[in-house]
Each structure stands twice: as structure tokens, then as C-alpha cells.
Specification:
single chain; 742 residues; alpha/beta; Rossmann fold; elongated; GTP-binding; P-loop_NTPase
Length: 742
Amino acid sequence: MPGAHIHQNTLGDGLVPLINKLQDIFTQAGVDNVGGDLELPQIAVVGSQSSGKSSVLEALVGRDFLPRGPDICTRRPLVLQLVHTPYQHASHHNQAPMEWGEFLHRPGEIFTEFEAIREEIECETNRGTGTNKGVSDKQIRLKICSPHVLTMTLVDLPGITRVPVGDQPADIEKRIRDMILSYIKRESCLILAVSPANTDLANSDALTLSRLVDPDGKRTIGVVTKLDIMDRGTDAVAYLRGEVVPLRLGYIGVVNRCQQDIAQRRSIREARASEAEFFRHHPAYAEVIDKCGTEALGWTVSRILADHIADLLPALSDKIATRRAEAQRELKSLGEGRPEDPGRQSAMVLEKLHGYAAGFTKSVVGKSDDLSTASLEGGARIHFVLQDIFVKGLESLDPTRAMSEEDIRTAIQNAAGTKGVLLLPDDSFEVLVKQAIRKMSDPCVKCARIVHDELGRIARTLINQQDLQRYPRLAQSVEDATRDFLVEGLVPAESMINSLVECQLAHINTSHPDFVGGSQALRMAQQELKRRRGASTAAGTGADDDEMSGDENDFGEDVLADVTQRNALQRKRDAKNKAKTALGRKLSGGSSVDASIDKVKDKENDVKALYSHENGVVSLKEPPGRIQASEPETDEELLQVLVTRILLGSYFAISRGVLADTVPKAVMHFLVNSVQRGLQQHLIQSLYHPNLVPSLLTEHPETEAKRLAARNKYKALSAAAAAIGAMPADLAAAGVGVGGRR
């Protein structure tokens, strides 16, 4: 086609430049495919070092512009964008050149001399790989505009080599293969596999690699070079027909310039004329003439690429729209960086503090925007602490559980001091009930501290959820200020709780309407005493245990049923043990009467140990260091113990109920509600200082890098979406729709 005007098909003229534009947009923005599955359609040129790959590319351009030499020349991927320009556009006002090149790394600089293009390729290659023979996967992007080219985009990849030269590493073959595979493994990439005709096509390096990623040959175009130097009497017709290695996209045969032609500076146009002459006069290629020559290669590659782009464009457009929305969300989540204006900085800090305080309140009251369905969060956890942990834990307290009758008897005697004990032991009751009330102090205070910890948990969660993490100093300062404010709220809460407990200790209100009272306690104790006597008699006569158990359960309807039931069960076990002992003695020759006699004797011996009779004179002895209260000898003494236990349990239940009600209220008022009301003001007073604001808005370097990357990605995707959006009108004028065929 030298000297002839090329009428390029409209589909190629419209779609290939679009993909070129998208490639340039993404490259200039510093993003690579902006996502794992966003791959632009392209053609990768693959071949061994001596396959004639460079000659094929120069033949398509019609110019010498690629570095040449005995060793590896293509050491970085060269993205070659060929753009067809009609004659009238190229010579408008006799100022614009007919043909020119432009590098993406030197935008706006026009190269009209193709020798200068070759030199710039060499210089840019050396800048990225060194002056020896190193390779790099960093692309060089070159656009060539000419009326003698068909619109297409090719990626010239380093030639496959096996022997390292210069400063190339020992695994240079593997590195180059991996680089090639990284391009051709993509489904969006067509493969132009260049193989010399004077070697076995089945062993072609290019076809071997392409079969690894395209085993069915659906996206591989075969190029057979050097047809003119095959052995005499042989031809490549079987290759071109796909009879040796089938490819769905077929093969094209070409004749390259030989080294002598290059040395003698024979032009490519002359070489293409000789190529056409070769195929016209070779009888073997007459039947496959449509598969022969550089012109056929150009039209075939351009048509296949345009169709390939048309097939992929709808899905590509959808992916770009999806990635753009994702980038927009990411950019929004990263927010703006620190503004330069001090006023805007102050406003931003106030906005962050207000948002954090508002989020804290929402979490406590259950109005959070992100309500969890997996577990309790925020205020629900505080309610759980107050009701399920504190109240139920308090209700499980029983002051009489670990207090035996001997303990109560000892307390009664100690409270009486030098006086005797009347029927209703008021003093001992007050001593014991205060001891029991004091045991509730620790869980009450612990309740406030657990709620304090839960509020701290809410604070930490909010800091992680909101965008405060973008500003490490602000996040840490907010966390510290919140922690201090929570401590300030805990102090009055604990003080109030201690006061509530002290109030219960300050006045034992025996006139409380729910208190069992002395007379009722006495009646209950008498009933219990009567039951015990009956149980003792029943044990002596061998009464049925179940019947006894039923009598004890009747007493359980009382306010202190659980206490009395435990005492009854203990007495039943004691009666069983006594019966077993009596039976054992009977079997061994003794009797129950003997046991009673032994018990009386033991008691008499204990008493006599404190004094002695000698010659009609009583001699008193010193008491032991530890004196246990004597067992009750009369019903009156036992009644005192029972009455005290009943009174203790009744009054403790009243105090427990009061604290179970008032402690959560104190925690809510002095801690939870106080923090909600004053947190924002506290944060402002602590952090909102003109000299502190700029440092609070210092971002983590990683955040700044993420924002820059997200902004570049969003801009690139927006530009890509705009470019695609402008296509339908252009193609409609040519009778082609997006993704459609003519």
C-alpha cells in the first residue's frame, strides 16, 4: 500500500483509538487496570529473538524505527499505537507533518524523524533497564500517526531467549517467559505469534507459549515469517492452512527484509513491493494468496482487533462503571485531607468531635445507624450489666446461707455482752444484718465499674468505626479525653453508691411494712421449733422420710421458706445419722440409751473441766483461749436462734431490693447520662485549641497515599467512562453501535 490512501474500516477507526485513549488515561494516572478484572483489549506480539518479530512490526508501520542488533533489542514492552490519519488532515495548511510519533513519557513533543524515535526508544529503555542487556516490565508507550498505517494497537514484548548476555541474570529465559505470560494469559489479549518458516512450526517458541494460555487457539493469530528462505522445493502452505498447528484465527505468511536489505538501507516500501512480487510468482501460494503478505496481515489484525474490542466493550463499560462507583465510595470514606485554611481546620475538628459525641449517644440509647443482629452492643450491654448481672447477682445473695445456728448463737451471746439474752435478741439482729448489708457494697461498686468499662468499649468501637482513624493524633486525643471524662463520671457514681449502702447501714428500719416483725417471727420460730420436735420424734419412731419432707415444704410458703427448708433438711440428715448410729450400736451389742448416756457424760466432763470439787470445795479454772457458744439447752435458746435467722433474712431482702433499685439509677444518673450530656462539651474544652487543631488533623502517611491513589483512580475511571460514553454517537453516525458489528 505505499503511496496509496488507505480507507480504514469505521469500526477500527472508532474502537481502537478508544482503547488507546483508555490505556493512556490509566497509564498517566499511575494505575494499572484499576482492578483485577478490568483488562483492556490488546494484541501482544510474541516471538523468539530471531523470528523476525521486529521486521513484522516495521513492515506494518512502513518505517524503520525499532532498535536492532545481534543481541536482544526489545528489553521493555513497547505499546505501539498505530493511528490512521487521512492525507487531508496530515497536510492541513502545509504545517502538520504527514507522519509523526509521540511518546507518552514526553507528551506534546512530536517526533517527525523515525531515526529519532529509534534513539528515544533506546534511551528510554536504558533509563529503565541500564545500558547492558537487562529487561524490565515497565512499558514504553509510542503513538505513530500516519496515512500509511491501519489503526491498531500492538504490544511488542521482549524476544524469547535462552542464553543470558551482558548483565542479564541466569534465569533471563524464565523472566522473559513470565513477562510474556503475564500479558497473554488475559482473556482480553489477542496473541500475534510470530514463527519463522524455516523451523518446525510444532516447536515454535511463540506457539508453545500461546498454547499454555490459549489451548484451543481462539485468540491466537499465527504469523509465519521468512517464507523466501525455506529449503528449495518446500513451502509453508500447510502452515498457512492450519494443518500443522490449528488456530481458529488462522495464519498469515510474510517475507521479511534480509540483513543485507537492512544494511543497504533498502526501504520497507521497496521490501513490501518485493514481497508482493514473491507471492504473485510463487505457484504454491496462489491458492492461499489471501493469507499472504504484510498488507493482508495489517487488514487481518486490524479487523480482528476491532471485532475483539466490539465484543468486549459492553462488559468493559460495565466494569469501568462499577470500579468508578467503588473508587468514589473509597474516596468518600477517606474524606478530605487537612485543609490549609485555619478556619476550615477548626470547623473540621468541631465536626469530628460533634459526630463522635452524637455517635456515642446513639450507641447508648440504641439509635445507632448500624444495629447489630449478631450480639448485644452499646446500651443493650449496659442494660444487661445492670439487670442480668447486677440485679440477679444481688438477688442470689443470702446472708444466712453460710451462717450456721452456732454462728448465730455466738453472735447472740456476744451481742448480749455481760447481760443475759431476752427472748427477742435485738442487738444481735442489728449486728448481723449490718454485716450482711456490707457484703452488698462490693458488688454495687463493681456494677458501676463494669458499666464504666462498657462505656469505654463503646468509645473505642466508635473511634474505629468512624473516620477518626485517618487522624491518629485526633483519634488518640479523643480516646484519652473520653477516658478521663468517664473516670470523672465514675467517681460521683461510686460515691453515691457508697452513700446508698451507708444509708442502709445508718438506720435499721424495723417498722418497714414489708419487715416480718418480732411477733410474726416468733410465731414462725415456734412453728419451726414444733416441727423440729416432731421430726425428732419421727426419727426415733422410724417415720417415713417423704412424709417428713412434705411437712417441711409446707413451711416453705413463708417469706423465709428457703432458709427453713435448708434447716429442715439438715435436721433430717442429722436424724438419719443418729438413727444409723443407734442401729450400729444395737447390732454391736449397744443401745440408743447407751448413746444418750454417753452424750450426757461427755457434757458433764466438759463442764467439770472448767472447775473441780475437792474436799467439798469448788476450784475454778482459767477459761480456754477460744470459747465456743454452748449448745441451746432450752427451747427458749433455740427460739432465739430461729427468730434471729428469720428477722435477718426478712430485713436483708428489703435492703437488697432497695439497692437493686437505686444502684442502677445512680449509675445511670451520675455516670451514663452524665457522660452523654457532657461529653461533647468536655471534648471541645479539652481539644479545641487554636494551637492544637493543626496537629490533631495530621494524617497517617498511609492515609494520604491511599487518598491520592483513590483520587487518581477515580479521575482515570471518570475519564474512561466519559470516553466510552462519547462513543455511541460517533459509531451511530457510522452505522455501528457500542459492542455491535457493522
